[in-house]
Structure formats: structure tokens, C-alpha cells
What we know:
Layout (H helix, E strand, L loop, with lengths): L1 H20 E3 L5 E3 H8 L12 E6 L2 E2 L3 E4 L2 E3 L1 H12 L3 E6 L2 H9 L5 E7 L2 H4 L2 E10 L1 E5 L16 E4 L4 H5 L8 E2 L2 H9 L5 E5 H9 L5 E5 L3 E8 L3 H17 L1 H9 L13
Parallel strand pairs: 3-7, 3-8, 11-12, 11-13
Antiparallel strand pairs: 1-2, 4-5, 5-6, 8-15, 9-15, 10-13, 10-14
Amino acid sequence: MRKLKIKLFFVLFIAVLAACGTEESKDGDPIDKAENSDANNAGSEYGLIEEGKLIFAASGEFKPFSYMEGNEMIGYDIAVAEAIAEKLGLEAVQQKAKFSGIVTGVNEGRYDIAVASHTITDERLEKVNFSEAYYYSGPVIYTRPDSDIQSVDDLKGKEISVSRGSTYVEMAGNYTDNIPQVDSDVVALQSLAKGHHDAVITDDITGQTAIQNGLEIENRGQLGVSEQAIAINKENEALLEAINQALQELKDSGELATLSEEWIGVDITQKPEELE
């Protein structure tokens, strides 16, 4: 009887060990717990808000870079964020936020990163780090076709509308104190086309897209070239390094240029000669 009890004990012991080593998936196949644990800890070396997930912010109000389709944001910025997350073995989790508060959100740790067409500026660099540029663009003056503004020389004292929190606020301040600020560049351009404001300063690609979508506005001159990059918390050097490496791989493979052509219609990932 004692021998039988000992045998039963060993049988149960082996069964418990086997159960601890594997699980079954929904399909009935065994799952290695060690491998499953590695998957759950993906990205732990990056100091993420939530392990295995890359939480990124965008405005959802900057077509074709980020805009809403149903309950999800799509666009070039979103595609870049998702491509980077895939390179890092992470799940991309998008968070829609007002553009003016996104950098603060990254600084305060509400988002891991921001992929929201931020121009690199000294002021923003005081709050966050920036990756290498993932596209290049530049500010342009837009007016209605019947406007007497023909160039930058005609902006003095005019009413220039810009998106709140953008670099265009300071730029417009070089010409006027009358600077209505709105929630997005698209809203500013729509308002301009309806007869409000004298001009809008915004990204040239945004203006081109608005014209293609039927807004009666015109380009009256470019004011410079800018670098757009990904904002990352200053204390997270590991994530900054990983994102720069992912971006370089996307550039080298041609995938970044492909995404640009898909969403923008042209390749905006190459540094213009003015910045070489």
C-alpha cells in the first residue's frame, strides 16, 4: 500500500511540473511560458509607459499627416509611428491630442513619443529630445486668390491665422501682432477660404493638399525649410537611440520613402539642398 502511495505521489508531481512548463493556446497547441514571458516583456529596456506597447500621440487634425477615419487616426505620421513600433517589436497605440499640448504630454510621461509633425526648435528641445528628421518641409504664406498680398513684403500689419502651439505663431509675429490662433492648420485654411483673416502661414504640403481638396487659396511664397522629427522624453535615452536606429533602417530600406509617396504623393524624406 505504501509503495502504491509513493508511485501516485511521483505521478502527480510529474504532472504538476508538466503543467507549469506549458499552456495550451486556443487552438490546443502547447505554449512555452518562457517564450510568452519574453513577448510580454518586449521593449522593457526602453522604459515604456506600458511594457510591450509604444504609446504615441498625434493631433488627428493635420491631413495628410494625421486625420480621422472612423475612430482611428490615419496618415503619414501614423504610418511612420506604426512602422517604428513594428521595428522595435512593440504594439503601436495611438492617442489623439490637441497639438498645442502634445510636447507637454511627452515631457510629463503621458505618451512615450509624439509623431505629430513637430518642427525641431530650441524651445521644444528644452522640454523633449528629438529623433533624426523623418521628413522635411517648410512654411508657406497662403491667401485667397483676390488678396492684395503677393509676397512676404505685404504681410506687415495683416491678420495672419496659424495653428495654436505651432512654430508659425512666432513666425507670424515677425510681421504682425494680429495673429488669431486656431486648433489646426486645416481649420485656419478653411476659415481663410471662407473670407476670414488676410493670410495663413502653414506647411506647404498641408496647403497643397487643401488646394487639391477644393479650397480656393494660393501660395504666395515659402518662408524657409524645416525638419520634422519624433519627440521623446528627455530622460529616455534608450528609446531615443532605438527610434533613431529604426528610422535609419526604414530610410535605408526605402520603406520611409514609400510611406511618404503613399500618403503625401511625393518623397519628402530627403534632406533639401538648403540643409545639406
